[in-house]
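To whoever picks this up:

The nightly regression suite flagged ImmA/IrrE family metallo-endopeptidase as changed. Nothing in the input moved, so I suspect the structure step. Input below, exactly as stored in the fixture:
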Amino acid sequence: MLGRHTSTLPLKVLKTNEQYEGALNELESLIVLDPSPESPEVDRLELLTVLVREYESRTFKFEPTDPVDAIEYRMSEQRLRQKDLAPYLGGKNRASEILARKRSLTLDMIRALHEALHIPLQSLVAPMRERTSADEKTEADDQFEWNEFPVSEMRRRGWFEGIASADQDNPQTLVRKFLEQVGEKSNLHPALFRRTFRGPGSTGASRYSLIAWTSRLLIRAKTLERTYPAFDRTALSASALRNLAELSTKDNGPWLAQGFLKDLGIVLLVEPGLPGTLVDGAALLSKAGHPVIGLTLRFDRVDSFWFTLFHELAHVEHHLSESEEAFIDRTDDEDGHDPVESEADLIARDTLIPRAYWRASSVSSNPTKTGILAFAKNLNIHPAIVAGRVRFESKRYDRFGELLGQGRVRTLFPEAAKGKFS
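Regenerated output under the current build:
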């Protein structure tokens, strides 16, 4: 508190403009004074605010300016961005909540905005109007730099099909309508711009490409999941995962995996990654609660498909819990130290090839082509999985390349034809 406040203005209903101006002047003095919460000055400040609002509602023929409208007007006037308000509103997140009308202004915020930006007090203390669908649109506009989305590539892949032709020449409207398909209403699904991307596949990648790609997964899943059973995490039992791994022995095993996981309530999609990203797989939750696994097939190999799939399943079973989170993975990144990713790697390796079997086998210490084929046959899995494990453990990526099933996965999925693979 800066000091004591004295006033002779009686606290009663304001009837004249002179009384109103006097109340505004005292209100300003009290806000600058910054009284302690339990002081008489705070009580007086609150009563004056009520009296001012009541006088304005009786006297003025127009609605007092909404606090957020007043802030946005000053932002436009001074060419300020949302981040410029952070020092006055307690940080970037708090500024976002205020502008989205999710949080009211505190006395400290009112004082800071009034002193720094010279926004009239009568505007800042006015009641904040309720949040509307127009505010949802404004929030999304503030969150996104629309020209950063890979519009030309999204168009080439046909992601804008079904959007009115009148919108095709406006990138912002085009991308907005694409993203709106994730939600159920004509506004953007809030998780789209709150989503946390985790994992090595999100490092250095364009956030806008990741938003577009994960949104594409959710849009496709939304259509498919209507026929899927509810997901029960206990369905990912050891026996179920073993049966899934054994599908790898079949030439069309990756395609069969989609149907197998559908019966468990899990959506498995192939969607090539967008330019600027090095992503192999992702795990996220749909709004309906179904796990959605996306695979890019960046590496067209049998071993890569199965390891990436089981890595994402490990996230689904052990880590994925909310729709505002997405695990984005790059399987050839060995420099990461994220314990969650390390755990998913370990679970995937041990599920495909049980640790006890691996340690007891000569393949782990003295691998040969004959030994790999025999070991894979004994476990009833594809030899590519064993060869991939040998290469990873030994860090000898020049060995057993002929066993990896190169070029045998993308041909099973028509969606892969739309990708640009280097």
